[in-house]
Amino acid sequence: MTYAAPVKTFHYLLKHAVEIDAIMATETHSEVSHELIGDILEGAASFTGEVLAPLNWTGDQNHPALKDGNVTATPGFKDAYAQYVEAGWMSLPMRADIGGMGLPQALAAATSEMTYAANMAFGLCPMLTASAVKAIDAHASDALKSIYLEKMVSAEWSGAMDLTEPQSGSDLGTLTSKAVPNGDGSYAVSGQKIYITWGDHDCAENIIHLVLARLPDAPAGSRGISLFLCPKFLVNQDGSLGERNAFRPIGLEHKLGIHGSPTCTMEFDGATGWLVGEPNKGLACMFTMMNEARLFVGVQGVAIGERAYQAALQYANDRIQGKVLDGEKGDTIIGHADVRRMLIDMKARLMGARAICMVTAAAGDLAQCLPDADARKAAHAKDALLTPIAKAYATDLGVEVASIGVQVHGGMGFVEETGAAQHYRDARIAPIYEGTNGIQAIDLVGRKLRRDGGEAMRALIAELEDIHALSKEDDAANVCEPALRGGIDTLKTATDIVLNAGDQDALAAATDYLALAGDVISGAYLIKAAAKGRAAGDPLSVNMQTLANYHALSVMPRAAARLDIIRRGADPVFAFPVEQLGDL
Known about the structure:
The protein is of the alpha+beta class. Helix content is 56%, strand content 12%. Strand 8 and strand 9 form a beta hairpin. The chain starts with 6 loop residues before the first helix and ends in a 10-residue tail after the last helix.
């Protein structure tokens, strides 16, 4: 159940897939160096491996407890959180003017993956805090920023996202929580919210909730939603904490996984809150928070997959079972062809998904720090396009890899003591929260592709064409070049089909289109990483080329099969009558 962060992998991808030198060349990040990046990666690896990873099993077996309106975290979590705050891990990608270190988000994607892989349940708390900081920084008044941002950037105060209600899940237009003006600039917020991750705990001094609710004169539907900041403890003028606010956790969910993360039902009973952003514009404010979270949920998918892979690799190296073909007596199961197939498939696909997540994070960095306005706009479009792919592709893969991890363990994977089952259970939430993967596919097709006529996707395809040109000039990429050519052509064809399809056909094809794009894009970035690394004389490029070759031969060709499904549109889905979905 140990975890060793793949530090060499992170640094290699930052150098050769992300090309972080372009970020470091900007004025914003001019003080960042590869030496600094290496030190941070090593420090994060030590912290996550020594402090967080040993608590992963503890959190699974010893759940948070609710008593008298207060949640007590899993034993050990409070001390680990204090060490997390003291080390300053939360502030790493935050801007210096709000108390952060101002380092690239692409680097934070690496350190966050370590946190989630070591202890996914723990990592959800800082993830939500970071997302809340983004929303407050972007939309709150200067007065609110001055009170809350510094403490949240340091993680002394944590954040929570209060969207869902019993009758209002993905469709937030049906929510009923209300906010009534108090006459002094504050509001009285009332209603019940469910599935509130880290909604209450004893690790942080204060918990800052961002709550969606309706003003008395709000229009119906999603256009009538406002966002409110409600602290667990009210803050006095001198910055000290005052009385507790009028909301409490009234229940903790009994979940399939991430047991160490308290998932609360919260009851707001006239709680004091302050408007964030404009009245009735709360959904736009909340999307600032959710978009940040969606990328890092994708990182979670890679993280839990990496943890499952490491456990499977260790078990395969230790377990003796059956005679290995052409092997010696006592050889371990890693010599069996099917076990080797599972392990290389896990590793190669995880590396591709990791590259997508890190490139997405880097696009977000460039959208903020490039000096040219048009270049910033192009980077923002790339970030927006890749975010739903990163979230859905990586989290679906995380579940699949964790399942393969159970399979490698055989019968021992089906019992709890090995930890393989926990990885599988923990992975399953990631395709659901922060917008289900079906919603991510709809977002990709509806908003990111069809709304701009495919402009952002064509720009990304042009980047893939550049990678293909690079592979044509690279003798070591002789396996990859034709595979990438075929993958790019498949993605082009699929994009044209979806752009010209009717709404129903496009929606029916959305999930397969996202997966097709993920298969091609992930493989392209592995090919790029191998070629760039080889050109730079990086000895690890040999290993990356092996992964890229496997991906080109075994993963990227799956795109063609998905294209056949996309061509058929909605007919196979809706040809089967609803009344026949039960017993034949």
